Amino acid sequence: MGGAAASDDLRLGHVTQAWLAASNDPEARVTGRYWFHQAQQQPASATLDEAFQEELVDALARYTGVTLP
User: pTM for the complete prediction?
Assistant: First the structure.
């Protein structure tokens, strides 16, 4: 992983998280959003599908043996 074929610059991976955690910028003072390079993005549609989420949690419980309360 990495090198010229990498999809992004690993050195920039922390920038948005640090900005969201410490900035007084009004753009950063929100919660529950999906961010990429300090810009809000539309999350994948599956993240809004509760049935998909339940299926995923159930599948993970079967694979790991760990169930959530």
Answer: 0.61
